[in-house]
Amino acid sequence: MSVxxxxxxxxxxxxxxxxxxxxxxxxxxxxxxxxxxxGQARGFAFIEMETDEQEDKAxxxxxxxxxxxxxxxxxxxxxxxxxxxxxxxxxxxxxxxDRPSPAGERPARTWxxxxxxxxxxGGGDSFQRR
Length: 130
Hints:
Elements: E1 3-6, H1 14-21, E2 27-31, E3 44-49, H2 52-62, E4 66-67, E5 70-71, E6 73-76, E7 112-113, E8 118-119, E9 128-129
Antiparallel strand pairs: 1-3, 1-6, 2-3, 4-5, 7-8, 8-9
């Protein structure tokens, strides 16, 4: 597991966080997400420590503590949730009934990708512009 630290200063560095957390145990990794456009820290971080006990102690001591003029928020990090893939407009998931059978026969329904204006409704292996 890891520790989530929020409400960080935008000028904080991973070395500064390592120094603070090393007071509570061995710091394995500091993940400090940076803003793509500004290159500054995004105001939160994830810290992995050697044991859960060390993480619990750090959370207990650092939650609501002042650091670099800000009141920190410390808690156990929640696992990242799986995201649902986003499909292009006009498409749909392929169903098993849409796939050709092993004998090479065409399915009863044909698949149409309306996002690019091409269709396979013409039959055979050629594609036609709608």
